[in-house]
Amino acid sequence: MGSQRILFITPNFPPFAQAGAARTGALALHWAQQGHEVTVLGARIGAATGIHSELDHPNLTTIMLAVDKEGEDARPAAPAKSDPAKPAARPGKLKRWLWLLRQMPDRFRAHWVPRAVAKARKLGGADAFDLIYSSGPPHSAHIAAQEIAQETGLKWVCEQRDLWVENPYIERHPFLTVIYERQGRRVQQHASAIVAVTRGAARELERQTGKPVTLARNGWEESDFAHLQDAAKPLDPERLTIIHAGLIYAERRDPKALFEAIALLGEDRRHIRAIFYHDEYGFLGQRIAQYGVEDCVEVQDFLPRSEILRIERQADVLLMCRWPDPAEDAVIPGKLFEYIGARRPILATGLDTGEAAEIVREGEFGIATQDAALIAERLREWIAQKQAGGGRIADLPAAPARAYTRDTAFAAVDKVIEGLGQE
Fold first, then answer.
1. Quick one: pLDDT at residue 91?
2. Helix and strand element counts for the chain (H, E)
3. Domain 222-402 is in which class?
4. At the top level of its lineage, which domain of life is listed (predicted)?
5. Rounded CA gap, 200 and 328, in Å?
6. pTM for the full model?
7. In the chain, domain spans
8. 5-9 and 131-136 beta bridge pairing
9. Does the structure show a pLDDT above 80 at 296?
10. Do domains 5-73+106-219+405-422 and 222-402 have the same CATH topology?
11. Is 367 a residue whose pLDDT tops 60?
């Protein structure tokens, strides 16, 4: 495949990517290492700093644009006049609705999208690039990509890491949902090619658009673990250490099955230590108290990804929580592939069907169930293995994990780009 100049539009990009958006940086680096010239239009998301490291490659240029109105790319706003003796008035319903509509599909729409379009124009548009590739969410990336594609005539690939239309995780007022999904259907229809990260999402996007959709799952990066493969020192040599390194979604990705299993262990629970690195709205704390597992479970703050990778290698078991709802069948948490790369046993709770559960079972990476009794039984087995292994459970075999590397997954994206370049 010949070298191409790719304009990559994705607000979530290192070092400002959120925890679940490691794919975007890996994809850009994959292209750069292949010899493509990659220019990224990302966003300076203050809340996402410190999780990912900044990427550096001679073929990679990263441009981070402000999200809010008062950014360095915007004219400073005049100070608002106010009477300190008079409380601020609550915006009226009409004003609030207009604000919500302006933020559709997300907060990047109002100011970041115009900046991204203007920046692409300033960089040279069709004279500077051969192809546009957008990755969302946030799905405003696709709005910017569509506008640039229409202006330049460039081919545009729309990658949806999560569905824009008919996403079971999205909850809005029915009126706003109609507008949100109508917007999504209209925008994605203009894409030259579409990429999805699960089989179920690919089928759904094919139904929505009538276009062929390429499946390019997430994967794990071999270089992430290259210096960690010999990290044999256990995180806790005495207790079976279970790590949850992803996001907890209140009432959906819920660890209650694990907590129920711990409660079934009796005296054996003294050998359990579960650590979570995220708690949405205090939901996890409520669950811990509800099941009385304070002696076995702790919650810590987010850590930089490099530190989390080391902890995953040193842990005994890696926990993946799934929503016990059929809507979860077509969802594969990105952390699953990272867990596979860490080569530690996986405990997948929640829905025991669907693509994620199939991967866990087919690769013999662990157990996928919502049955607390089965989980308790497996916990006892892992405790015995840890004790027999001198404080550490043996690594899983390397061969099954190699089937899920990012290079393997991104090969499908490479074919899409090559095909568009030949048209």
1. 55
2. 15, 13
3. alpha beta
4. Bacteria
5. 10
6. 0.87
7. 5-73+106-219+405-422, 222-402
8. parallel
9. yes
10. yes
11. yes
